[in-house]
TrEMBL record:
Catalytic reactions of this protein: (R)-pantoate + beta-alanine + ATP = (R)-pantothenate + AMP + diphosphate + H(+)
Protein name: Pantothenate synthetase
More details: The reaction proceeds by a bi uni uni bi ping pong mechanism.
Gene: panC
InterPro entries hit by this protein: Pantoate_ligase, Pantoate_ligase_C, Rossmann-like_a/b/a_fold
GO MF entry, a single one: pantoate-beta-alanine ligase activity
Principal cellular location given in the protein's record: cytoplasm
Compartments reported by the entry: Cytoplasm
The organism of origin for this protein: Pedobacter lithocola
Length: 281
């Protein structure tokens, strides 16, 4: 597995492969890899010949500097996991390489109304930061396909909107959420959960599953009310939102006949903020 720290070195590696007609996949990550990320690598291998995984903790998408500081960076472990998974190349630039003019570089694009909903309402500017770095990574790799996890449902939507904005010819593939045996969605942040938090964190997947299982039996309002009741009296758990939304715009769901519906949740469990979602249809 090749490891590159500069865009120039990565480009020199990719150029002959592209000239030989190889299909390139990009798997963008912030490291602290788990089996959810490895499932992205595996899916990439089914869809391309050369797999580039980027590891970059992107400062412009963090709204809380403390969150950025405490983001886990187990680089040796990450490289070992990627090597075992058969990843072709890792791109792990530093901040100066990605933001030569400093992390305050100007960037603002229209991502549509969904930018300001849900995660966007709790983390102002988050999706501008995400799309800014993903565009830079796309420019550095110029992949044919790029893989993203469904766990960050809204992020995938924002990246698709950014792609549309720049008319980039990249195929975005969304990988289903990978869960622990008891239902907890895998996340780099789970490492911060105490034993009690870990138990309490199951409320996210349980409340989502409840909505999926009972979708036909109650109105949207009733379903959301019942799902929110899962969080009552759970000490140390603070619900940010629980919603059932239209899958393509994230606007609140209006009718059950909608072609795509998704239930999404975010909650603080102890000091760790977790998100999760389940596609209803
Ligand atoms: O999902 C993530 O890990 C990040 O938001 C991404 C897409 C790598 C951009 O920094």
């Amino acid at each position: 597995m090749e490891v590159f720290k500069t865009k120039a070195a990565l480009k020199a590696y990719l150029e002959p492969l592209k000239a030989a007609g190889k299909k390139i996949a990009l798997v963008p990550t912030m490291g602290a890899l788990h089996n959810g990320h490895i499932s992205l690598i595996k899916l990439a291998q089914e869809n391309a010949d050369v797999i580039v995984c980027s590891i970059f903790v992107n400062p412009t998408q963090f709204t809380d500097p403390k969150d950025l500081e405490k983001y886990p960076r187990p680089i040796e472990h990450d490289l070992a996991m990627l090597n075992t998974a058969g990843c072709s190349a890792v791109f792990m630039p530093n901040v100066e390489e990605m933001y030569p003019e400093g992390a305050g570089e100007n960037w603002h694009i229209n991502l549509g109304n969904a930018e300001f909903l849900l995660e966007g309402a709790f983390r102002k500017g988050h999706y501008q930061g995400v799309t800014q770095i993903v565009k830079k990574l796309f420019d550095a790799v110029e992949p044919d396909v790029a893989m993203f996890g469904q766990k960050d449902y809204q992020q995938v939507l924002m990246i698709k909107n950014m792609l549309e904005h720049f008319k980039l010819p990249i195929n975005i593939i969304t990988c289903p959420i990978i869960r622990e045996d008891d239902g907890l969605a895998m996340s780099s942040r789970n490492i911060h959960l105490s034993k009690t938090d870990r138990k309490n964190a199951l409320v996210l997947s349980k409340s989502l599953q409840y909505v999926v299982d009972n979708f036909q039996s109650y109105s949207f309002d009733e379903l959301v009310k019942q799902a929110k009741a899962f969080y009552n009296d759970l000490e140390g758990v603070e619900l940010d939102y629980f919603t059932i939304a239209k899958g393509d715009t994230l606007q609140p769901a209006e009718t059950k006949e909608e072609k795509s519906l998704v239930a999404l949740v975010a909650a603080k469990v102890g000091a760790t903020r977790l998100i999760d979602n389940m596609i209803i249809k």
